[in-house]
């Protein structure tokens, strides 16, 4: 085993050293999230993301933000959070110089300039720049509506739709 990256993703061209790593990576493009959190039900496309998420349920959070009540179990998560308070945005788009606090946000933004749409629907072939957009799109095919209004039971495809609906409840005043 030489560690040579010889397994190529047909969707984005990334290379991997094992077929297992390639298969895990391809879940990013399909929107499939088979790794579910036992505590809250949130799903993830890869086991590493699930493990990172599981740490958010860990009560042993020793890294406290000095500006608010948030606590973190990893210093790196606290460091990323502190950028909210400082306004620091160290990640800069080479195309338009827009700045970002998070490298993932920069990566997603750059797709606006490159036109890259790495997340493709396996049902109809439509492509998206972000996995979250693909997931919402796939729900149109499946009819899944996981976001439920606790007040009236109405269900929604996206959390933003539920949030808008709840605002509607809040704006209705009895006569």
From TrEMBL:
A GO MF label: DNA binding
Keyword vocabulary terms for this entry: DNA-binding, Metal-binding, Nucleus, Repeat, Transcription, Transcription regulation, Zinc, Zinc-finger
Pfam families named in the record: zf-C2H2, zf-C2H2_4
Domain annotation C2H2-type: ranges: 7-34, 35-62, 63-90, 91-118, 119-146, 147-174
SMART domains tied to this protein: ZnF_C2H2
Coiled-coil segments on the chain, per record: none
Domain of life: Eukaryota
GO cellular component terms attached to this protein's record: nucleus
Gene Ontology BP terms: regulation of gene expression
Principal cellular location given in the protein's record: nucleus
Transmembrane residue ranges: none
InterPro entries on file: Zinc_finger, Znf_C2H2_sf, Znf_C2H2_type
Cellular location(s): Nucleus
PANTHER family: GASTRULA ZINC FINGER PROTEIN XLCGF49.1-LIKE-RELATED, PR DOMAIN ZINC FINGER PROTEIN
Family indicated by similarity: Belongs to the krueppel C2H2-type zinc-finger protein family.
Protein name, per record: Zinc finger and BTB domain-containing protein 17
Originating species: Balearica regulorum gibbericeps
